Amino acid sequence: MRHRKSDAMYGKMLGVFAMGIMVGSAITLLFTAQSGRDSGEKNRDYVRRKGEKLNDLQDKNLRT
Q1: What is the mean pLDDT of each run of 10 residues along the chain (64 residues)?
Q2: According to the 3-state scheme, what is the secondary structure of 18-64?
Q3: Cys staple from 38: which of 28, 30, 34, 62, with CB 3.0 to 4.6 Å?
Q4: Chain Cα centroid distance, residue 29
Q5: Is residue 15 within 8 Å of 22, Cβ to Cβ?
Q6: 43-to-38, 49, 55 alpha-carbon distances in Å
């Protein structure tokens, strides 16, 4: 009997998780103001800038 309750609980948790993914995806699609290409460029620029700052920090730490 105990095994069946845990299976039911697992199924419910999985269902809630899947529903959260679907709702989150729908909200993201509705409220995204940029195209995929624009978002990709913005993300690449962000990562590039952070990488440059990290390199500068490493250079500074190596010099001291």
Answers
A1: 69 90 87 79 91 87 74
A2: HHHHHHHHHHHHHHCCCCHHHHHHHHHHHHHHHHHHHHHHHHHHHHC
A3: 34
A4: 14
A5: no
A6: 9, 10, 18
- Residues 39 and 32: beta-carbon distance below 8 Å: yes
**Type of residue found at 22:** M
Only one residue has tokens 């105990």, namely 2
CA atoms within 13 A on the CB side of 23: 6
19 close to 11: Cβ distance less than 8 angstroms: no
For residue 59, give both structure tokens: 């250079």
Helix (H, G, I), strand (E, B) or coil at 35: coil
How far, in Å, CA of 29 to CA of 4, rounded? 38
- Residue 10 has what pLDDT? 82
